[in-house]
Amino acid sequence: MEDSGLLSVLYEHKEEKGAVIPILQGIQEKYGYLPPEILERFSELTSIPLAQIYGVATFFAQFRFEPRGKHLIRVCHGTACHVNGAERISSAIEEYLGIKEKETTLDGKFSVENVACLGCCSLAPVVMIDEKTYGRLTGEQIKKILKGY
Amino acid sequence: MSYEVRIGLASCGVAAGAQETYEIFEKVKDIAKIKRVGCLGYCYAEPLVEIIDEDGKSYIYRNVDTKKAEQIIEQHIKNGSVVEQYLLDTAVVQKKLFRIATRNSGVIDPESIDDYLAHGGYGALEKVLKEMRPEDVIECIKNSGLRGRGGAGFPTGKKWELTRKSGGDVKYVICNGDEGDPGAFMDRNLLEGDPHTVLEGMIIAGYAIGAHEGFFYVRAEYPLAVKRLSIALEQARKRGFLGGNIFGSDFSFDARIKEGAGAFVCGEETALISSIEGKRGMPRLRPPYPAQKGLWGKPTSINNVETFANVPWIILNGWEKFASMGTHTSKGTKVFALAGKVKRTGTVEVPMGITINEIVNDIGGGVLKGANFKAVQLGGPSGGCLPATLGNTPIDYESLVASGAIMGSGGLIVMDESTCMVDVARYFLSFTQNESCGKCTFCRVGTKRMLEILNRICEGKGENDDIDILEKLGNQIKTASLCGLGQTAPNPVLTTIKYFRDEYEAHIKEKRCPAHQCKALIRYFIIPEKCTGCHLCFKVCPVKAISGKTKEIHIINEDICTRCGACYEVCKFDAIVKD
């Protein structure tokens, strides 16, 4: 795998103390996930033990070790969304796409993630697809929205 | 007449379609001043547009979609006649509010430093650097009675004093913007609506404690907050509010942003520090406190976003004014994110000492659709549920702790009788169980065991001594955990047992969910008299559990039904009921 993406991320943070997390965030932005061979190269180039890199990467929910679908569906399961029926939204998505949380459709078009709170509680229940947020949803509405993608 | 038009473009406004509304108003930017602002506070009526006329009179329009926007432009902006039917009545609510931390939110353009300066911005910093010694600043904040707004309520001035008195030349100040409580969005609104205020508060803290470097730790889930804060930092650097010799003094300070990577425990200060150092976000034993040994072993003051936002106001208006508000032990105001089953959701800043009833009924307009107010949840996964009967509890750090809840960071979720309290407890515990870092056995294993018990209660498999085990285990976890996460994780369970024990008993003994929420304990059926045979439920049922032809009465086969609720949601005739 091409490591030029990694090199530019490392260069960007070369002066920064304790930059493992921003570097991992940079790698994920460049490659869409954390490819094992890039992490190995990261370790070689910086002399940070691979175990330490994995220790950090697996600790935080943000990091992925597999490529994700073209569109990321984030279903909010915050408190306000929970009491306003987020469970129903999740099951509607599962009915429509046939995938559960943390899974990707076979055609690679959608990945689904549950998130703790998107902070749009007044619009609960909320789903974020890529950068766009949809609020005050029902199960049927989310199916219609997904149809549009 | 010339107008200033303010359009609320915080995350929830954008989600409600405010960007499209903004674009419509931009078309008339030659005849009116069109301004992007942060959260106006009335989230339930997004997208919000406020029009200010030359005399300073304000008109707030609610739910302004593109069509209404065109109409408002034609009638109000071009012809000067107010579109009465779209106006939002804020008179009742405004009487209850007092804005300190959110004073500029919804008023200024968060991406314009000039607008912030025009509203007195960086005036407090100038006063501090020109007229006050660091000790005076600390004294002022101590006298004001300001306490940490992240939840625990440690006196801010005292924290600064401890950090100042710790030895060494290098010190740090950190802004904790890792707002991880589900149901809380106050800090996001502050960072999106008025990032300069938070930055100004941080620079003042830096001066007070003798730090020259600051970090904003912000959740990665808040991209807009990160963006607006980066713009603010760059602007402040250009104008000399960050960098060397600020306001001609010998004080220099700079700040940067660290994005969180999704770990709730990083809201705990020692875990947050580990994460900035590039390590796993695990908490460590205190003492030594960060004020003595923090980031990279140096004395560090960690303050919440809202805490910082209060500081410039206190400096400019005097500590006396701040301390005159609130109760004996809790001064000033608190920002709450009001959400859940309440009519008027939003961000509200209220004086300390206001009661829960006033927030829910007077500000929030009561619960939705005439249902009954049952409980409020305060403080997210670390907090507790208080029943409606305790609605007269004042908002005050000590009163809330005495009731079993906590002030918390400010999430306030209203619940009505359709909310199952056992399910709510299970919900929070599944959250904390998942977010436990795993360091302490009681938190790691204990929350898992508690969750298993709650799961089985919700599934109708609860056993007679389950409530006792939950209480015993909960108290053990509180005692034997190192950090705030474990020490507070059992709170939602313990408070719901304390106030809603009958609901637990109904689940366990009668295998019944009084709120009709727990799937295993409910069934859906169709009232024949109400069914019109519209066939809609038949179409949406994912497991084909509904039979019936168009214009005939439909029937649900209980054996096939998965209780997903799809039919219940689409029925327009209230013919489908839960039992």
Model description:
- The complex is a heterodimer of chains A (149) and B (579).
- Chain A is 46% helix and 12% strand.
- Chain A contains seven helices and four strands, in the order H-H-H-H-E-H-H-E-E-E-H.
- A four-stranded mixed sheet of chain A has the order 2-1-3-4, with helices on one face.
- By secondary structure, chain B is of the alpha/beta class.
- Helix content of chain B is 40%, strand content 14%.
- The model of chain B has no long low-confidence stretch (mean pLDDT 95).
- State the share of residues found in helices of chain B, binned by percent: 25-40%
- The number of strands of chain A is 4
Alpha-beta classification of chain A: alpha+beta
Shape of chain B: globular
Strand order of the largest sheet of chain A: 2-1-3-4
- Spatial strand arrangement across the major sheet of chain B: 10-9-13-11-12
> What is the percentage of strand-forming residues of chain B?
5-15%
The radius of gyration computed from the alpha-carbon positions of chain B, rounded to a whole number of angstroms, is 26 Å
Task: Give the fraction of residues assigned to helices of chain A.
Answer: 40-55%
Give the secondary structure arrangement, pairings included.
The complex is a heterodimer of chains A (149) and B (579).
Chain A (H helix, E strand, L loop, with lengths): L3 H9 L7 H12 L4 H11 L3 H10 L11 E6 L2 H5 L2 H12 L12 E6 L11 E3 L2 E3 L4 H9 L2
Parallel strand pairs in A: 1-2
Antiparallel strand pairs in A: 1-3, 3-4
Helix pairs in contact in A: 1-2, 6-7
Chain B lengths: L3 E5 L2 H5 L2 H9 L6 E5 L11 E4 L5 E4 L4 H13 L12 H6 L16 H6 L4 H9 L2 H11 L11 H10 L6 E6 L8 H8 L1 H15 L3 E6 L4 H16 L15 E6 L9 H8 L23 E5 H13 L1 H5 L9 E8 L5 E6 L4 H8 L9 E6 L5 E4 L9 H7 L7 E6 L4 H15 L5 H18 L7 H15 L3 H5 L2 H19 L14 E3 L9 H5 L5 E2 L7 E2 L9 H5 L5 E3 L1
Parallel strand pairs in B: 1-2, 5-6, 5-8, 6-7, 9-13
Antiparallel strand pairs in B: 1-3, 3-4, 9-10, 11-12, 11-13, 14-17, 15-16
